[in-house]
Structure formats: structure tokens, C-alpha cells
Design goal:
With 244 residues, the chain is of the alpha/beta class. It has helices at 4-13, 18-26, 50-53, 86-99, 113-120, 143-152, 169-179, 194-204, 223-229, 238-242, and strands at 40-42, 61-66, 75-80, 104-107, 126-129, 154-157, 183-188, 209-211, 233-234. Helices cover 36% and strands 16% of the residues. The protein has a 9-stranded mixed β-sheet, with helices on both faces. The longest helix has 14 residues, at 86-99. The chain is globular. InterPro entries: DprA, DrpA_SLOG.
Amino acid sequence: MTTSKDILCYAVRHNGDWTAIARAIHSQEPAVPVFCQYPCVTFLDPEYPACFRKLRYPPWILFYQGDLRLLNGPAAAVVGSRDASRKALDNTARIVHCLKDRYVIVSGLARGVDARAHTEALDKSTIGILGCGIDRVYPRDNSLLFSRMRKDHLILSEYPPGTPPLPRHFPWRNRLIAAAADLLVVTEAREKSGTMYTVDEALALSVPVWCVPTEFGDESHMGCNRLILQGAGILCDLQQVREL
């Protein structure tokens, strides 16, 4: 019978690869005790966050720092471009300011919109979901933000400590951002971007998606307008945000 200690071993052995861990569990791969300096919770544990159990591929294990109970309350995911425009960063701050008294703010601790969303929520509650090991500060220019969130909020990852931020990790990570949220707000996005993976996961989970429309003529960030054409909600003003 597979135990939580076995899953920790498999996660470390297979660098957090979901499929490899599943194979190890199915085949009852021999496991050896593994020490981890960070708190972790597995799919077998009663304290495993309920929001992730609804995923088609729930993470086998979560490594975290901070207050895991933040995943139990109402949450709003706020995501968008890493190369965000000044307008998008300002809109992100204004939207989070309206949401943070009612929702825990969830994002991916990336540059741009993610970092601004977390920063604006530091006086309340925010959750950062990583695409690398929890001991890896990525990107480096978010190091102070990481430090604050590790101490007073929550950061988590399904990848074991030491795992580098490989490009393939981030689209896979985005399913967790969607699952942790009761609503998803996109403040700016390219038509082909990681944000679109988050939106796809949100739609699969019936999480409402709201978008800030892109200014006419801005061809570099047409993702929100495309989503609105496809049926996403459009955010026109802060009063509407207050009513979410």
C-alpha cells in the first residue's frame, strides 16, 4: 500500500513529474525514506487542499511555506503578461485593491502582472504557485516578494526542492492557479501565452473568467479581446469588480 512517505520519495526521485510518479505508485516502485526540509502534504493526507482534488490530474504532493489554510477560503486568481504594459500593471493594482478584502489573491509569482497582483495584496492574503522547487527564487528580481510571501502568506509547488524552472513546468503549473480560484481575472495577455493555459483550465473547472479589454490598436496584447469574443466576461470599471 502506497504511503505519503512513498509519494515524497517518488516525487524527489522523479523530479516532480506527474506521470512518472503515477507509474511509480501503480507499480509499487521500491521507496526509500527521504528527508525534506520544507513542509509537504500528499494526496493521501486529510489536510490536502480540497480545491485540487477536483482536477483531472491533481498534484500528488505539494511542498509549501506559509499558511496552507489560505487555500480553504474564497480566492481570486489575477494573471496576465510578464511583459505587461504600464496600463496593465496599474489596472492590476486597482483590481486587486478592490478584491483583496473579500478574496485571497492567487497568482504565479512571475514578472509583470503576477508580481503586481501579489504586491498589492501583501497587506491582506496572497498565494503564489510556482513552476519550480520551492527553494528556487524565480525570477530573481522577485526575491523580496518571495521572502514576504514565504513568511506571511503562502507559496507552494508540486515540484521538489532543487527543481529548476523549466519552460514545460509553467503551463502544467497553471492548472493549480485555476483550481485554487473561485474566479479568474486576466488584466492583459498575448494571444499565445501561458495565461491562455490558465484560462483553459478555469473553463474546464467552470471557474468564471473575467478580462480587462485591450485598447484598440494594441496588437501585442490581444489575448483579452480574443477571450471576450469567445464569451469571457468583460470588466469595464471598478464598480463591476466590486460586485464580483
